[in-house]
């Protein structure tokens, strides 16, 4: 039986599906869609730890702060690396959603479903649940990200057929074969958008002796990123710090340069996909060969990634619609289906 107070508070709260990502946090409100899509960054005073900005406002400060201010990314490789700043960030987003049009807040007591990587430890799970409760949730559930993503793209996860999902996020890459509401086999790689940005920075540093900023590397990935040779070539002029002279210097980079810098990470992802296919039962592999591999997450936006995976696996590959939103959308969909939620949740807690 639901306590009367919780029942009343629940009527005035908006239940949330949350993709608490390494790079971005997305919040899906039941009946409204994605209402929060902001960077997972908190700016705070170095000594006092006072929070100065969160999300998009904090990202504007990255690389431009005085010594007294630091920009913290509280999520690392899909799990909490800084509890207090994660709590501040999630609380801010929950209150932002429940803010009344005329000012003030309704008392938020939502149910929250959060996607987490498949290889999280019990301690890491507990930390996420504790953050959700401290941020105002009356109930919090954890679901593995590939399962949430598969639900978010409407794959038939409850049926006795094989579905394969590849979720390339900011901190991790989640690969899974799903059937009958469970993950049959899979891999969780600590490779995502952050590693790819670092690959670009390392490549430019070693080849041209030029140090690039974090934002410049990300812009290069977005503008020139490519996974397959047939993609149309582009060029971009970037400015960095000449490591030998200690002065600013500009160079022109092309699509082929960025493709070369990204190839180690992309090849690791492809090899892992092939390993998962090898581990899957033959009947499920047959289903995947017929239905295709679905790719989502920010990495799905790299031009040609579907061609690379298809060429290496000899299987059709589909890029999900709105690939950035799949995990959050899947978490939100579970708010409407208690039976499926009870089958796929890996942890639950109530306040």
Could you characterize the architecture of this molecule?
The protein is an alpha+beta fold. It has three domains: about 5-145 and about 325-350, ATPase, nucleotide binding domain (Nucleotidyltransferase, domain 5, 2-Layer Sandwich); about 155-190 and about 265-325, Nucleotidyltransferase, domain 5 (2-Layer Sandwich); about 195-260, Actin, Chain A, domain 4, CATH 3.90.640.10. Helices cover about 40% and strands about 30% of the residues. It has twelve helices and 19 strands. The protein has helices spanning about 5-10, 55-60, 85-95, 120-135, 145-150, 195-210, 215-225, 255-280, 280-290, 305-315, 325-335, 340-345, and strands at about 15-20, 25-30, 35-40, 40-45, 50-55, 70, 75, 80, 110-115, 140-145, 165-170, 175-180, 180-190, 210, 235-240, 250-255, 295, 315-320, 345-350. The strands form five sheets. Strands 3-2-1-9-10-19 form a six-stranded mixed β-sheet, with helices on both faces. Strands 13-12-11-17-18 form a five-stranded mixed β-sheet, with helices on both faces. A three-stranded antiparallel β-sheet has the order 5-4-6. Helix 7 crosses helix 8. The longest helix has 25 residues, at about 255-280. The protein is flat, with a radius of gyration of 21 Å. It starts with a helix and ends with a strand.
